[in-house]
Design goal:
It is a single chain. By secondary structure, the chain is an alpha/beta fold. The chain has helices at 18-33, 37-44, 92-108, 129-143, 162-176, 200-215, 232-243, 266-276, 290-294, 333-341, 349-352, 355-369, 375-400, 404-423, and strands at residues 3-5, 48-57, 63-72, 80-87, 114-121, 152-156, 224-228, 247-253, 256-259, 286-288, 300-303, 322-324, 345-347. Strand 2 and strand 3 (63-72) form a beta hairpin. Helix 6 (200-215) packs across helix 13. The longest helix has 26 residues, at 375-400. This is Glutamate dehydrogenase.
Length: 427
């Protein structure tokens, strides 16, 4: 029997440090709120985290050992909530940062959750469906004492989907001896999923993109947009933007990018992606370098890929007037300074992409009640909550004279701190 060990993430694959950025944002909010240094220490560190080994028998019979993480950042406002990603770039510090951002996102949208995140260091494109199921079930078994509808509720993220959530729910339920629909969200409709969940993050991104364009006096029907990343978030965001009258002129994914100055035919592009698995090679548009998408002369840029793609190396070349962060942490701290100096309106991730956690919350509520809402109910509630949060962040930004990211973090940190202080410190 041959045993293979998954290689650790190379230090050369990324110069970015999302955890440092997340803690820096927290420190700024703590300072503006006038809290004691001890509150920073309390909120900067996860309440609980676990790293597990995941032995996998490959279809070939070989044994490979993968590494998985689950970080629960905060429970002050309710059970932890956060996605599970499968990516070769997963690291514990990345998961810690994402869990912290989830805490702020839930608080900002006034959802009664704390933040969590999970990840397995794996490239899912190189594994069979049967292998991915075995990975998911073993990972779930390893972390099962820490999750549950009253403890921590995973959801899909990069590299995972509703099928992954179904496997997690089934594995957890088998251990409990009864079906527990509320242990995950983002499940298939037939297993307690919610209408609108698959496109919720994209819906939220577009609601705020249109609001942000109007905020600076741009008519969305005359606006141009570029979307970085054509996965769960970017693909639907491009379609919804196009349906709203925005001319989407460029999109990219990990394999390439395409540009059409007259506007991409999104339906035709989707058909091409379904057939080929990538936007690259789409014949109704010109090919482009992925990095150039971020620097195009457009009104709106939607980074919907991974962390840190907008950084100090390219921020000065960004020409978009509005950036709406579909991804988590796509803009580094250094890039934020440059963009603020250029008066680029950046709608931060904890606000912009919160539609997913909102409808995850709706799904959890429906599962607990065993009563499901119709699509119009979900969409109306999503639009109302996103609009309310947008107005609150804009008002805080104007009152404090700070960027939207700072204003959003201040609101969230203040709410989490209030919950913590009201609960008290035990013992």
């Amino acid at each position: 029997m041959t045993v293979l060990t998954a290689l650790p993430k190379s230090a050369a694959t990324s110069i970015l440090d999302p955890l440092t950025d997340a803690r820096s944002q927290l420190a700024e909010a703590i300072g503006l709120l006038g809290y004691e240094p001890g509150m920073f220490e309390l909120l900067a560190k996860p309440r609980r985290e676990i790293t597990v080994s995941i032995p996998l028998r490959r279809d070939s019979g070989e044994i490979e050992v993968l590494t998985g993480h689950r970080v629960q950042h905060n429970f002050s406002r309710g059970p932890a909530k956060g996605g599970l990603r499968y990516s070769p770039e997963v690291s514990l510090d990345e998961v810690r940062a994402l869990a912290m951002w989830m805490t702020w996102k839930c608080a900002l949208l006034d959802v009664p959750y704390g933040g969590a995140k999970g990840g397995v260091q794996i490239d899912p494109s190189t594994y069979s469906m049967a292998e991915l199921e075995r990975v998911t079930r073993r990972y779930t078994s390893e972390i099962s004492p820490l999750i549950g509808p009253e403890k921590d509720i995973p959801a899909p993220d990069i590299g995972t989907d509703e099928r992954t959530m179904a496997w997690m729910m089934d594995t957890y339920s088998a251990q409990q001896g009864h079906t527990v629909l509320g242990v995950t969200t983002g499940k298939p409709l037939s297993l307690g999923g919610s209408l609108g969940r698959a496109t919720a993050t994209s819906r939220g991104v577009v609601h705020l993109a249109l609001a942000a364009l109007r905020e600076i006096g741009i008519d969305p029907s005359r606006a141009t947009a570029a979307v970085e990343g054509y996965g769960k978030v970017g693909r639907h965001a491009a379609r919804f933007l196009s349906e709203a009258g925005v001319r989407v002129v460029a999109v990219s994914d990990q394999h390439g990018a395409v540009v059409a100055t007259a506007g991409l035919d999104i339906s035709a592009l989707d058909a091409h992606v379904d057939a080929c698995g990538t936007v690259a090679g789409f014949r109704m548009a010109d090919s482009s370098d992925r990095s150039e998408i971020l620097e195009m002369a457009v009104d709106l840029l939607v980074p919907a890929a991974i962390e840190g793609t907008i950084n100090e190396q390219n921020a000065a070349r960004i020409k978009a007037r509005v950036i709406v962060e579909g991804a988590n942490g796509p803009t580094t701290k250094e890039a934020d300074v440059v963009l603020n100096r250029k008066n680029v309106l950046v709608v931060p991730d904890i606000l912009a992409n919160a539609g997913g956690v909102l409808v995850s919350y709706f799904e959890w509520v429906q599962a607990n009640q065993a009563y499901w809402w119709n699509a119009d109910d979900v969409e109306q509630r999503l639009a109302e909550r996103m609009t309310h949060a947008w107005n609150a962040v804009c008002a805080k930004s104007a009152a404090m004279g700070v960027p939207l990211r700072t204003a959003a973090t201040v609101i969230a940190v203040e709410r989490v701190t209030l919950a913590h202080l009201q609960r008290g410190l035990y013992p």
